[in-house]
Amino acid sequence: MYLANKKYITPDMKMADIIFENPSILLLMEHFGLNFIVHEKTVVQLCFENNISEKVFVSFANLYNGFHLSGEENFDNGDIEDIIMYLKNSHNYYENEKYPEIKSLIKELYSKNSLPEIKLIDQFFNEYFEDVKEHLLYENSTAFPYFYELLRIRNSKKSIAHKDFSVHEYSEHHTDIETKLNDLKELLLKHVPIQNDRELRRKIIVSLFELEYDLNVHSTIEETVLMPLIDKLEKSIH
Fold first, then answer.
1. pLDDT tens across 15-44, in order?
2. What single-letter DSSP state applies at residue 77?
3. Closest Cα to residue 132, out of 183, 185, 177?
4. CA distance 103 to 19
């Protein structure tokens, strides 16, 4: 999401002020399972009351505000469960809300504009959505349980049940699912003729931008925070 005046978030800021400046922070809060009624609470108060790492929340909130991670956040094993909770909740949002919303809009678009190009977009998105669901299922059912298992045995000498799996395999399986969203935007903005469907097309394009923005943050967290943490955890156990 484009921000005209991005502000670096600090723990002493009031949550309401942060949300008013960037409403997409509401989605971040939802990914952490937080209530939207924030009263006059600051970031640190909200995190303390909900037992969420202040460091993790502030770092991720600043990704939503357009800042990169500094590399000095010093995430540790104690942050992994909060990070996985965030990722799992975002998976639920993608699979059960955002992708179905876009799928429904594209279907509606085809009912108003029956050009063959729209039909192809509909097919393209449906196939892409199936790939995304497979990707999310793999992370939910294979990768995340393995990460939890690593946490459970980090201080013991037990063997790892998923011996054939590692964070290296996870990183190789990790795909850039947001790339195809840009292809869709290109088609709708540059190539497919418009036919009395401007309002619908605007809704689809804005929704694609919103999804792409959240997916970019999601991928940054997986690749630059979670994977290095799990890699260190694996090495400490082996």
1. 999 999 999 999 999 999 999 999 999 999
2. G
3. 177
4. 28
